[in-house]
Amino acid sequence: MAQNIIDVKNLSKSFDISSKEPGLTGTIKHFFKRQTKSLKVIKDINFEIKEGEIVGFLGANGAGKTTILKMLCGLIYPSKGSISVSGYLPFRRKENFLKNITLIMGQKQQLIWDLPPIESFYLNASIYDLDKFEAKRRIKKLSEMLEIDEELFIPVRKLSLGQRMKSELLAALIHEPNILFLDEPTLGLDINAQRNLRKFLKKYNKETNATICLTSHYMKDITSLCKRVICVHEGAISYDGKLELLLKKLSPVKEILIVCSSEEDAIKLENSGFTVKNKNKNEITIKIENNSITSSLKTILNNFDIEDLFINEPPIDEVIGKVLIKKDYDI
Amino acid sequence: MLEYRVEIALWAISGIIPFFMLNIWTSNNLNESINISDVMLSRYFLCAFFVRQFSVVWVVFSFEEDSLMGKVSPYLIQPLNPFFRYFAQHLAEQITRFPFALIIAFFFFIFNPESLWIPNLGILLLSIVSTFLSFLIQFLIQSIVACLCFWTEKASSIERLLFIPTLFLSGLLAPVVSFPAYVKSWIYLTPFPYLIDFPANLLSGNDTNISGGLSMQILWIFLLFPLFKKIWSEGTKKYTAMGS
Fold first, then answer.
1. What is the value of ipTM here, to two decimals?
2. Is residue A269 a contact partner of residue A295, using CB atoms and an 8 Å limit?
């Protein structure tokens, strides 16, 4: 049984936010009498993450996902509550803790802009006390996994976004961390680059048993990488559990398009007690609950003359979209 | 690459204030009032130029920009204080400036051959140490001001306030010896005269209290370093990772 590597209890974070009215009067007022209010962005959250787990943090913009990641990696100081990551208090930023983690932010970069990525890799290798031989070995291994080669020797400013992101990943993983905090890692990447990145993360997790905490607005990232999701709504956790269960809960029915051999059969089917979504001549769409799908289909196939049949899954983005606007999911 | 080469040359040229000041002093015979010969004064300002080249600091501006743009965040989760990066950057740029500073000195001696001198090895080594200590003091002062970015978004404005005493009291515009005696006694209690005046006097061979000057430089480093550590530790608790 895997051990808990992240343990969060009653965690809260507040920020002091000042607001300014527009125009010159607003600026003068702001200068002499600033209106500041304390905004609680994370509200008493609790969760645990086991070693080797890949957990997706879902939520609308401003829900607090990134703030949680920033507190987990020790970048910002919590206002209340406790966090333990790999046995350390993240904010103390102890050397051994920092050598165990990495944070990748899709929209931020750590590579030196005017130099080839390889220079940044060697710099990071020195920061993490790796000797040149070991650094070379890891760069070779990771560049093979990420499928980058010539790009290592081209100034960062001349690389494409996808190549840069791969190089960022390499720079962030050169010290082989066992906890990865990824904030929108596929932001701005094309579909192929996104797929490659996901493939790489899966492989990295499998080979190193690294724990991955991920936020992303691309549902494909979440569905292909995470078995477990934590949904954050206005700073509180609205759901923490298996993604599969959440999807079942949110979309309990399937839509089935049935093409009957005649319009009469379609009318008969319409009046046979199923929930009908719509009907057009000999085509009829009905809704069937997930748990009775097999028996219902058996009945239809035995009693009606059917030409064709299509089962439609609701789009995952639509389903997850519901999570972002709802406060609680009791599953 | 041409842009970078021009930029490096411009850096070096941008530090030539001491030569302007030399011109003002000598053309108005101001040096007579403080009993320094033309030759010693020109050596002083050449040395002030050299000290300035190898002790100039801009960490507050770099840190402020990085902090506001969220670039500090990845550095903060590495097992190395981000100020080491800026420190290394400054050292690297000082090395880059060196050949340009030599070229400027070469032309200076072409036009002022009477000022040519070769300092003895001991003095040269002490001057290098003193210039490095001056750099450390300035780096620590600016780093402390830079840490104010955690409280105010415009810490560089505070640095601009410090720039005025630095300009007047460091010896960049005039040797500190030219100030009235009662002002001098106060100036020597501040870190400013140990930034340019002391190392420049030491290198140029002017009469100066070597052990006293070096001790004051070390004392200021010992005072400023814990202050930097404290303000860094308090400041990072305030960090909100804005822009990232």
1. 0.76
2. no
